[in-house]
Amino acid sequence: MADTRIRVLLVDDHQVVRRGLRTFLEIQDDIEVVGEAGDGAEGVALTEELRPDVVLMDVKMPGMDGIDALRKLRELANPAKVLIVTSFTEQRTVVPALRAGASGYVYKDVDPDALAGAIRSVHAGHVLLQQEIAGALLSNDEPGGGTGRGNSLTEREREVLGLIADGRSNREIARALVLSEKTVKTHVSNILMKLDLADRTQAALWAVRHGMAG
Question: Is the pTM higher than 0.70?
Answer without folding.
Answer: yes
